[in-house]
Design brief:
The protein has 781 residues and is an all-beta fold. It is 3% helix and 61% strand. It folds into two domains: 84 residues, Immunoglobulin-like (Sandwich); 559 residues, Maltoporin, Chain A (Beta Barrel). Keywords: Cell outer membrane, Ion transport, Iron, Iron transport, Membrane, Receptor, Signal, TonB box, Transmembrane, Transmembrane beta strand, Transport.
Length: 781
């Protein structure tokens, strides 16, 4: 009997109406396995050994159901769920997320997944094991500036929302999680969508969307300490506090975090601090939550990487930024400094059993600068008149400058969800956001006397961007078929200081209108598997540099993407898997060329035709109750057609290098990830984690002299949890990164030119640390 295996199945319905509830999440908690109820509301777990289990069912808008079951033969366990008297906060982000059977490729991460991997490294490392993902660290040790690419797309093409509110910078469109250090400690769940995905707020998604939801309701009071320490002087301390639910209506949560690291690269130290405060009121049919949170970062500049020559000579840590030519020393305050504070007011309302509303008001203020040492700069570049000292005309000098940014971002988001029955799920929503950025630059010190006042401001300009969108999304069930439709209209207005036709710096205006339709279909093949297909169109505006460093005659066009996805998903009790094929066809994709525009700045240019095509696969295999294997892999081809690179010779004459068909920069043809987890005893885990990334190119020429070599890295994660009197949980962990000390670089940059009639390559690598560790301690009270 102990070795026999049985079926556990059942049906999920509404207790009051008896209606079936498709798409409910059913979990056997003891085994940590889940499945979804099918179109008929039924679920099945296969190959369950005899024993005692706890089965839980969750469904949006309903109270979680939970039952105990003793399995000694095939068993049936039905659930009749009760509608929740309190609105669940999942409504806050549901408008921008894919549902269980949506015809798009996505990965969900729960709080348990997040906590298991939240050892102190950058936020992006939480997502490193998801399909088609590459993560890198400027400092080489995972702390400070970290970054992510999904399907070869960098953060400027990855839409990131926090509680449905855009996080991407409105002007350069990047996302800087370093400005919110230890955000992971206040996150409840994450969804990563690959491709165009569903309609969302903020810039259009060209590679992926990352949708983050922060702290939700916890009914019991808690105090929690999380600390970690390890290689390269890395130390993190975090305290979380919460009141639980007070008087059945109120809750308050708070967090303080502090982190320091010396970094692996020379002079790449980080000092990071953050806080998170949240208060909520729970009414019978509504939730009102105020989040106030922010962060401060000071990072020594390592954002140029290590010169290739230094790596070849064995110095993998050399940082040339801040080098003082006159003394041969390094400038100690070559740093980036930034503060960012967020304010979010979130409101959810269950208007009727069929209709709900979710809205948010938000405001973000950011300010800071980076400071750098400049060797022998011309005074004319700073609008300074040369001075004569002792009969000598001083026209250049070493100097220290600060480049400032002070910005405000605010707006409102809203959506209505209408679900009259189990067939139709309709969402209508939109957002209006404004951004105001003030860019100004100061000189702090000059080596030569220049007669300028202290903190001399030599340039200033302002920008304003408005972003308005409306969207409507519907899912409709016809038996075993789910029909999906999604349409979005987006208007962008951008005012910036740029060049006119006469090359005068004047305020410019640009207006863009985008229409982004999506359609798809999902067919339920069996109770536990489905096949889906979709087509989506996305549009993406140029960034600040594209506009500022061009004139009306050379201004770039917006990018367009047609994304086709076809996939299959299955979920069994001991096995779940998915395979997804994609074809992403770009028009007017913006890529760097090496050329200078009509105002003398490096430019990106529109390439008429380029594409990405590939297959993603992922699986989870529960080999035994103690051993499971997570694995994913992506095989792809990523091509640019008719690319013309322009390089410059010693006399600054342009030299053209035409290419017919080449690889898109930073787009590996193969990525793979594996996690093998074993629980030798209760509450203990040993995990062996692997990541493989094939060769990438640093530009769009497929030149082997400008290529990032393939790499294969392995980590080990150890966790053990226990409790003693007075302490609910004591968790100790050890993360050993790069256990085999592979010498690799996960990112880079290249600056080729023409010297003596031949191409000379100047490559820079973001080298990653050899074997290193982070030990962690978690205390819950």
């Amino acid at each position: 009997m102990a070795s026999a295996q049985f079926l556990v199945s059942g049906k999920i319905t509404d207790q009051q109406t008896g209606e079936i509830l498709p798409g409910a999440t059913v979990t056997i908690q003891n085994l940590a396995i889940s499945t979804m109820s099918n179109a008929a509301g039924k679920y099945t777990f296969k190959n369950i050994k005899s024993g005692n289990y706890t089965v839980a069912v969750s469904y949006l808008g309903y109270k979680t159901g939970q039952k105990e079951i003793t399995v000694s033969s095939n068993a049936r366990l039905d659930f009749a769920l009760i509608r929740s008297t309190n609105v669940t906060e999942e409504v806050t982000v549901s408008a921008t997320r894919a549902s269980a059977n949506s015809p798009t490729a996505f990965t969900n991460l729960t709080k348990k997944d997040i906590d298991k991997n939240n050892s102190g490294r950058g936020f992006e490392y939480l997502l490193e094991q998801t399909p088609s993902t590459v993560v890198t660290s400027n400092a080489g040790a995972g702390v400070g500036y970290t970054s992510i690419r999904i399907r070869g797309s960098d953060p400027t093409r990855i839409n990131v929302t926090l509680n449905g509110i855009p996080m991407n910078d409105a002007e350069d469109q990047g996302v800087y999680f370093v400005d919110l250090p230890d955000l992971a400690s206040s996150v409840d769940n994450i969804q990563v969508q690959r491709g165009v995905g569903t309609s969302t707020n903020g810039a259009g998604a060209f590679g992926a969307s990352i949708n983050i939801q922060t702290t939700t309701r916890r009914d019991s009071a808690y105090t929690e300490y999380n600390g970690s320490a390890g290689s390269y002087g890395t130390v993190k301390n975090t305290i979380n506090l919460g009141t639980g639910l007070l008087d059945g209506h109120f809750s308050f949560d708070g967090r303080l975090s502090n982190m320091t690291s010396d970094g692996y690269i020379d002079r790449s130290a980080s000092t990071l601090r953050s806080y998170f405060l949240s208060g909520a009121y729970y009414g019978k049919n509504s939730v009102l939550r105020l989040n106030v949170f922010g962060g401060y970062e000071q990072t020594h500049q390592a954002w140029d990487g290590v010169p290739e020559d230094s790596v070849k000579f064995g110095n993998r840590k050399y940082n040339e930024l801040g080098y003082i030519e006159s003394t041969g020393q390094n400038y100690k305050n070559q740093t980036d400094n930034y503060n960012q504070n967020y304010y979010q007011l979130l409101y959810n309302k269950q208007i009727s059993p069929q209709l709900s509303f979710s809205g948010a008001l938000h405001y973000t203020h950011g300010y800071g600068y980076y400071e750098e040492y400049r060797n022998n700069d011309a005074l004319s570049d700073y609008q300074i008149t040369p001075v004569t000292v002792g009969g000598t005309v001083i026209s250049s000098t070493d100097l220290v400058r600060r480049l400032w940014l002070n910005n405000d971002f605010y707006g409102a988001t809203y959506n209505f969800n209408y679900k009259p029955d189990n067939k139709l799920d309709l969402t209508v929503g939109g957002a209006y956001n404004e951004y105001k950025g003030r860019h100004y630059n100061n000189i702090e010190w000059t080596q030569q006397s220049t007669d300028i006042p202290p903190d001399y401001e030599y340039s200033r300009n302002s920008a304003k961007k408005t972003d308005f969108n409306l969207f409507s999304r519907a899912e409709y069930r016809l038996g075993d078929v789910l029909l999906y439709g999604d349409v979005q209209y987006r208007h962008i207005g951008y005012s910036f200081l740029g060049y006119d036709e006469a090359l005068r710096n004047v305020q410019q205006q640009v207006g863009l209108n985008f229409f982004n339709p999506k359609a798809g279909i999902t067919y339920q093949v069996t109770d536990n598997s489905n096949v889906y297909a979709s087509i989506a169109i996305g549009n993406h505006e140029p960034n600040r540099s594209d506009f500022v460093n061009s004139s009306p005659s050379s201004r770039p066009k917006a990018e367009n993407l047609k994304d086709l996805e076809l996939g299959y998903r299955t979920s069994q009790s001991n096995f779940s898997a998915g395979i997804n094929g994609f074809y992403m066809l770009y028009k007017n994709q913006l890529v760097l060329t090496g050329a200078l525009d009509d105002v003398g700045e490096a430019i990106r240019t529109n390439i008429k035709d380029s594409y990405r095509a590939g297959v993603e696969g992922n699986a989870r295999v529960n080999i035994t109750q103690q051993l499971y294997w997570l694995i994913n892999a992506t095989i792809s081809t990523n091509k640019v057609k008719n690319f013309n690179q322009v390089l410059f010779d010693e006399n600054y004459n342009p030299v053209n290098f035409p290419y017919q068909k080449t690889d898109i920069a930073y787009s590996p043809n193969f990525t793979g990830a594996s996690t093998i987890s074993y629980q030798p005893i209760k509450n203990a885990e040993i995990a062996f984690i692997s990541k493989y990334v094939s060769q990438q190119y640093l530009d769009n020429t497929s030149s082997k002299d400008r290529a990032l070599p393939k790499y294969f890295v392995n980590d080990v994660r150890l966790n053990y949890n226990f409790s003693i009197k007075g302490v609910k949980n004591i968790g100790i962990g050890l993360l050993i990164n790069n256990v085999f000390s592979a010498k690799y670089q996960s990112d880079g940059a290249t600056y080729p030119d023409v010297e003596g009639g031949k191409v000379a390559n100047y490559n820079y690598w973001f080298v990653q640390a050899p074997i290193n560790f982070l030990a962690s301690l978690n205390l819950k009270f």
